[in-house]
Write a structure and sequence with these properties.
about 130 residues, alpha+beta, two-stranded antiparallel ribbon, 6 helices, about 40% helix, about 25% strand
Length: about 130
């Protein structure tokens, strides 16, 4: 480490990043408003624990996912909130699972990105 690196000041905002999301309800044609919010450390660790329980590691250290059930919806349930007059409400896994797969995947990728999990979540899912 150079002397210059030792004197570097790291500056951060502790505000969680948010991305507005609009989803059109096909039955009503109404647009519902959501926010995709960056996870804090506690939520990230719980998600990584969830992924860890879905993994098998063989004697060679190779990692294999047991199943992919709820992988995307579980992460999104920690990041996606319905914007309502009385405050933001978390969206349940059951509701998220009913979203089209393409919508889930795009929201999942964005949630990983804003939560700083691009590499961790991909590696855990076997998508290196």
């Amino acid at each position: 480490m150079s002397d210059e690196d030792k004197n570097e000041v790291l500056k951060f905002s502790l505000s969680l990043e948010e991305v507005p999301v609009e989803l059109e309800n096909p039955k009503t044609g109404k647009v519902d408003h959501y926010v995709l919010r960056e996870m804090n450390g506690e939520l990230r660790d719980k998600y990584l624990g969830f992924i860890g329980k879905k993994m098998d590691v063989n004697s060679k250290g190779d990692v294999k996912m047991k199943d992919y059930d709820g992988l995307q919806a579980n992460l999104l349930s920690r990041c996606l909130f319905a914007v309502e007059d009385d405050g933001d409400k978390p969206v349940s896994i059951e509701v998220i699972q009913k979203f089209p797969a393409r919508v889930q995947t795009i929201l999942f990728e964005k949630a990983k990105e804003i939560s700083g999990m691009d590499d961790e979540a991909e590696d855990a899912a076997g998508n290196e």
